[in-house]
Design brief:
The protein has 616 residues and is mainly α. Among the domains are: 66 residues, no CATH class; 123 residues, no CATH class. 66% of the residues lie in helices and 5% in strands. The chain has 32 helices and six strands. Strands 2-1-3-4-5-6 form a six-stranded mixed sheet, covered by helices on one side. Strand 3, helix 32 and strand 4 form a beta-alpha-beta unit. Helix 5 runs antiparallel to helix 6 and helix 27 runs antiparallel to helix 28. The mean pLDDT is 92. The chain binds one DNA strand of 10 nucleotides through helix 1, helix 3, helix 5, helix 7 and helix 9. Keywords: Repeat.
Length: 616
DNA sequence: ATAGGGTTAG
């Protein structure tokens, strides 16, 4: 153009802004001032400020604010709104509030911007306050307001508020849109009302990928993992193309089921669909591989990722920790610091539990008392519980007990259970029984603790103790949870129940178990018959041990898969001592890698050893 | 003649 004016620049800048080229808008702003010597007006500044928000350019945003002050454009509504959004986006609540209050006149967009900004940075009560103010000042609510307010209800998990807002929306008679539909489903999902969310979904006239993903996420958040995976097939059938959020949800559903078959297929599909470099997909993949027991797969995804954020680092660190790989976890943690990524609350849970696996008591306390302080992270219950685990794992049971008594925090049942299982491993039954009392006082229905307690009595050969526990369980009507193990072979899941002969191939499986046990006896396997609490002959006790669900699942997988294939088992309870020592030797005689995910640990058995170093 | 705010995720 031979001659350009502010409107020419403004038109171009708006076009770029709306297509997502925020950085380019800032470049144009500079050129307009320097090349054409033009003075920006309120249109230019509104767009430029928004571009600063969208591209994360804080410094430039502040410079624009200075420009606004110098040029006296502050009293234009659009400019004010853009400023409020800029400060909200950069989580400067005070700055946003200052703009909000210092310039008279706030419209719907002003309030929408500040509420959204507050929610996005976790200022929920402040968000609620602004909403009340908006209502008090009788500012009109539009669809964007409703979307934001439903977001507020989701985060507060406040169903009552959600229902009130939904009613108000229906009465307002405003035109409904897809943003609203997704926000409503999200609200009901996060407030635990999955069937209402589904009803909203079924009532949608049109659906896009976000509506689908929102309902899948609602199923996920309500523990309906298989339903989520099933519904995805329906989504594909209707020709809706999944995006990176969809894959994150589905991978998470697979992780929760420990379904590596689904996880693997989804990984392939995500790559084919071009989501290889999306952070949330990478993070979900790390999580999926780690939770399905394939920690090498998790690391491979991690190393291949082009872009990482703090969740990426946290995922691989806690993945390594869950697998008992303390050295690897700490090495990645140091890489994280070197890469300039700031650790957070969650990072240190993984780091401290890694110290636990390595028995590094001093290093753990250094992180807790010094590094966390330096980084401005206040230790919480989870961190202190890691310290209890760390001390007790190192055999310092009484130090752990003292630590618990001297730390001013309200301990939960998890912390006491940590100390309890340490007492079991270190065979300190005196302290163990005391701690078990505390655990049962806090949670009288905890079946695992009764089992642990009666095991401790049995190990100490206190048969009266065993009888007392069993009486107690009968009196309190505590039913022993059946032991379940499952394994995925090709695309089928096979479930095994302890002491259950109803499997069609039961005979073969038992024969295979017997064969394996006979093979490992010469290597030192001694059946732990003391742990069998049935009143039967010794020989039969040995047979009962062979009926544990993980032994059945392992025998079956070995029968049905090629000779070098890894064996992966998931079970619902804690692995017992007998199975643990048996499976170690089985990994040796079969030359297989056997991974068992029990209720809270991963055990990777290889060549006669377990990754948990016999502490779990 | 040119301008602003929203949904799903780890």
């Amino acid at each position: 153009m031979h001659s350009r004016n502010v409107v020419s620049w403004s038109t171009l800048m708006t076009g770029l802004f709306q297509k997502g080229f925020a950085i380019e808008v800032l470049g144009l702003f500079k050129n307009m001032v320097l090349e054409d010597n033009l003075c920006p007006n309120e249109y230019i500044l509104a767009t430029t400020l928004s571009s600063c928000s969208n591209s994360g350019m804080l410094k430039e945003g502040l410079q624009c604010h200075g420009y606004v002050l110098k040029t006296g454009l502050l009293f234009h509504q659009y400019v004010k709104n853009a400023l409020v959004r800029m400060y909200s986006t950069f989580s400067d609540v005070e700055g946003a509030t200052r703009v909000l209050n210092s310039i008279p006149g706030s419209d719907t967009v002003t309030f929408n911007s500040i509420i959204h900004g507050l929610l996005d940075h976790g200022y929920l009560s402040e968000g609620l306050e602004v909403l009340c103010r908006m209502a008090a000042e009788c500012v009109v609510w539009d669809n964007v307001t409703y979307v934001n307010v439903f977001g507020l209800c989701s985060r507060l998990k406040d169903l009552k508020l959600g229902l009130q807002v939904h009613s108000r929306m229906l009465k307002s008679g405003d035109e409904f849109d897809l943003y609203l539909g997704s926000a409503i489903m999200d609200m009901y999902g996060k407030c635990g009302q999955i069937s209402v969310a589904r009803k909203v979904f079924d009532g949608l006239q049109t659906r896009n990928v976000v509506s689908w993903t929102a309902i899948l996420a609602a199923y996920l958040q309500n523990g309906c993992f298989e339903e989520a995976l099933k519904l995805f097939l329906q989504m594909e059938l209707e020709g809706v193309v999944p995006n990176e959020y969809t894959f994150a949800v589905l991978l998470n559903a697979s992780s929760s089921l420990s379904a590596f078959g689904y996880g693997n297929s989804l990984h392939a599909l995500a790559e084919k669909s071009g989501f290889r470099s999306h952070i949330i997909v990478g993070n979900a993949l790390i999580n999926m591989y780690s939770k399905t027991g394939i920690i090498e797969g998790a690391y491979e995804v991690f190393t291949d990722m082009l872009y990482r954020d703090s969740i990426t680092w946290n995922s691989i660190i806690s993945g390594y920790s869950h697998h008992g790989l303390g050295k690897e976890a700490l090495a990645v943690f140091h890489d994280m610091l070197a890469a300039g990524e700031h650790p957070n609350y969650v990072t240190f849970i993984g780091v401290l539990s890694a110290c636990g696996h390595l028995g590094r008591v001093q290093e753990g306390f250094y992180y807790l008392h010094q590094l966390m302080e330096e980084m401005g992270i206040k230790p919480g219950l989870e961190h202190y519980t890691c310290m209890v685990g760390l001390l007790s794992k190192a055999g310092l049971l009484y130090e752990a007990e003292t630590f618990m008594k001297s730390t001013p925090i309200e301990w939960d049942v998890v912390a006491w259970r940590t100390l309890l299982s340490a007492c079991q491993v270190h065979r300190n039954y005196v302290l163990g029984k005391q701690v078990a009392e505390i655990v049962l006082h806090m949670d009288p229905d905890d079946v695992g603790t009764y089992t642990l307690l009666s095991n401790m009595h049995a190990k100490a050969k206190s048969w009266d103790g065993v009888a007392t526990i069993r009486k107690l369980m009968r009196r309190r009507d505590i039913k022993k949870e059946p032991g379940l193990s499952w394994t995925e072979i090709r695309n089928d899941t096979h479930i095994f129940v302890s002491d259950d002969n109803s499997h069609p191939e039961s005979n073969q499986i038992h024969e295979k178990v017997k064969e394996l046990l006979d093979k490992i006896k010469p290597l030192g396997y001694v059946p732990d018959i003391a742990s069998v609490l049935h009143d039967v002959e010794e020989e039969q006790k040995e047979e009962y041990l062979g009926h544990h669900s993980e032994k059945l699942a392992i025998a079956y997988t070995i029968l049905k898969t090629p000779s070098r294939a890894p064996v992966r088992i998931i079970k619902n309870l804690r692995m017992c001592d007998d199975c643990h020592s048996a499976v170690k030797l089985m990994s040796k005689v079969t030359n297989r890698v056997i991974t068992v995910r029990d209720v809270n640990h991963f055990h990777c058995f290889r060549d006669g050893m377990c990754s948990c170093a016999d502490y779990w």
